[in-house]
Amino acid sequence: MNLTAQDEISLYVEGVRQALAHLPAATREELLEDLPEHLAEVLAEGGGSLTERLGTPQAYAAELSASAGITGSAPRPPARAARLAELRGRLGEATRRIDDRTGPLLGYAKASDFLVLLRPAWWVLRGYLAAMAFAYIFDDNSARIGLLPRVVDNELFALLLLAGAILGSIWLGRRGQPAKPVPRLLLKAGTAVLAIYAVVGFFEADGQARQSTSYMDTSYVSEFGHVQDVFVYDNQGRLIKGAQLYDQNGQPIRLGDNGCTDQVTGEWRESRQLGYPRCPDQAPFLVATPGETEAGPTPEPTTAPTPVEPSGAAPSPSVPTPAASK
């Protein structure tokens, strides 16, 4: 049985129940005991809606009372109730037409046949949404919406809550629609609330993600945005070419553009330098490059040492003089 047929049966049974409201509760429940199964068989045979096959719920209630030997006709329902019943019938008929027409687009005779296959997935999603709604209500709401239903900031408790909610939702789904109107109404109302919560939570999470990304993009301002090139000098004041810059984590530091602007023509050209500076000819300081040699101090002239004569030198020869006469 698909979802549309089940809803149609529930609406028809509720209409018959209202038409038999003048009977005692025990008698009314006895007459309605096997009605859902009978209506399911009628729908399975095909040939139109329940109203087309069996008439209005009020007419069927009168026939049901007569077949049970209950004398007295049911009071005529108020005009407002009759209009509501007619409106429900029209909505059901329109829904059935849409079901028949959209089914072939999905590869099935009816769209409801395809939706039946998605029932287990919906049960799991409904349990997840119920757990998230519970956490949202009973948490302090100071943190952003996450993927787990956190109440006491405990991951184990969040997993247990999520598992319990999903298992409970699967159990409710396997039981089917409640027979009594009040539980059925509560189930539908709770499902509608969870659907609204899912839509609101989706847009809130999307807005938080977009706001966080926008904040990071607009609030960061680099103090080196004006730097176009980097010039590295050694302790001798000489320009180092091909320098590579890294941070404390070993990541390369990129500053400026990989190109140079001609100071005369203003034309930009791509640099072929493998490191910094990109434009060595635009260095702010004119210093000697590592390839150049520096002039050394002028050497002072040295004098040759004066040789010293040895102390034991031979006496120089003397010139003989004539002897004196006696």
UniProtKB/TrEMBL annotation:
Residues 273-326 are annotated as: Disordered. The chain crosses the membrane at residues 114-136, 156-173, 185-203. Residues 288-297, 309-326 have a biased composition (Low complexity). It comes from Actinoplanes aureus. It comes from the Bacteria. The keyword Transmembrane helix applies. Keywords: Membrane, Transmembrane, Transmembrane helix. Residues 298-308 have a biased composition (Pro residues). Pfam families: HAAS. This is Uncharacterized protein. The keyword Transmembrane applies.
